[in-house]
Amino acid sequence: MPLPMDPLVPNPSSIPTTPYPATTRQATGYIDGTLTDVMCTSFSDRIMVTITQKGRLAQWIHVPLDVSNPSATDQYLPSASADDSLLPMTHLTPKTLLGGSTQERETLGQLYAAQIASLIASKNPEEKRTVMVGLGLSKVEASREDFYDTLDLVRKCL
């Protein structure tokens, strides 16, 4: 005689299957002479990207990739102009969750987060998960070269 089903235990056939563990990729490089670690982890509902220098992680920003007005998506497609190709997509709205103790740090963090979310959305236009970016940069300012080098490390993980 089979045992009765406990109502508190879910039926195994009703549990959604998701890949476990979450897919993780890493890249390491030197940015302006500082060892920089980048890790990208893909969860079923979020994409987490961390950029750390000297073991620090001091700021978290999230960027939703879904567009609240589906009829307006055409205006957010990447521009054909070469001058606009390096700009983050205009519909992305980064929000600082933790950290960003100064206006300069918050602005730089949101710039990185919007650009990383743009890279992800450009790679897969159907992507709708929220992007979580954790930053631990040792300097508040970044030269253009440092900014692009950091994004290249992120690109290796995506």
What does this protein look like?
Helix 1 crosses helix 2. The protein contains two helices and six strands; from the N terminus they run E-E-E-E-E-H-E-H. With 158 residues, the chain is α+β, with helices and mostly antiparallel strands. The protein is globular, with a radius of gyration of 19 Å.
What is this entry, summarized?
The protein is of the alpha+beta class and 158 residues long.
What class, by secondary structure content?
alpha+beta
Mean of all residue-level pLDDT scores: 81
Shape: globular
Secondary-structure element string: EEEEEHEH
Low-confidence stretches: 69-84
Summarize the biggest pleated sheet.
6 strands, mixed
Helices, by number, come to: 2
Key descriptive features of the protein:
single chain; alpha+beta; 2 helices
